[in-house]
């Protein structure tokens, strides 16, 4: 089952996560590909996506955007210590290829997406579009 993270409704309120078949093909993830955890924040002026990327080099992360879908993908290299003669007693860390797709709301300025990495945290910022509202006078024809 695929999930859509945000849906724009009245006054920029976001509905809870819900099913959406419209994006099913876009959101499919290859088998044997991990996903990274992320938080999505809204400060009123922009959406901020935070993804802990410890153990991943900046050159191994790729961000792409198409049709309201932001894709974060890359590769987390397994440390060389695994090549030594060791016995793994507990394995929770994911090593290898990863991909995460996020459907974003329409009220964002996708031309102004910016990203940076600080303290092993990928930070993606997307400013909101601000629409003005006004009354429209109706003239007699």
Which shape, going by the Cα principal axes?
Answer: elongated
Biggest pleated sheet: 4 strands, antiparallel
Radius of gyration: 20 Å
Termini separation comes to 52 Å
> In order across it, which strands form the biggest sheet?
3-4-9-8
Whole-number count of domains: 1
The CATH topology corresponds to Immunoglobulin-like
Mean pLDDT: 81
What is the highest CATH level, the class? Mainly Beta
The number of distinct helices, counting runs of at least 4 residues, comes to: 1
Just name the CATH architecture.
Sandwich
Element pattern in H and E: EEHEEEEEEE
Q: Segments where pLDDT lies below 50 for 5+ residues?
A: 1-19
Number of strands: 9
What is the percent of helical residues?
A: under 10%
**Beta strand %:** 25-35%
The assigned structural class equals: mainly beta
Word description of this protein:
- The chain is 3% helix and 35% strand.
- With 141 residues, the chain is mainly β.
- The chain has a single domain, classed as Sandwich (Immunoglobulin-like), CATH 2.60.40.790.
- The strands form three sheets. It has a four-stranded antiparallel beta sheet, with no helix packed on it. Strands 5-6-7 form a three-stranded antiparallel beta sheet, with no helix packed on it. A two-stranded antiparallel sheet has the order 1-2.
- Strand 3 and strand 4 (46-52) form a beta hairpin.
- Residues 1-19 have low confidence and may be disordered.
């Amino acid at each position: 089952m695929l999930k859509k993270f945000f849906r724009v409704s009245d006054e920029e309120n976001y509905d809870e996560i819900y099913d959406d078949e419209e994006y099913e093909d876009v959101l499919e993830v290859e088998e044997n590909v991990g996903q990274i955890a992320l938080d999505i924040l809204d400060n009123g002026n922009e959406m901020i996506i935070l993804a802990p990327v410890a153990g991943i080099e900046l050159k191994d992360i790729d961000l792409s955007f198409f049709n309201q879908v932001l894709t974060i993908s890359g590769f987390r290299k397994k440390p060389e210590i695994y090549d030594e003669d060791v016995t793994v007693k507990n394995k929770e860390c994911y090593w290898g290829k990863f991909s995460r797709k996020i459907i974003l709301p329409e009220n964002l300025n996708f031309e102004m997406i910016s990203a940076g990495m600080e303290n092993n945290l990928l930070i993606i910022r997307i400013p909101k579009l601000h629409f003005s509202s006004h009354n429209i006078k109706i003239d007699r024809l």
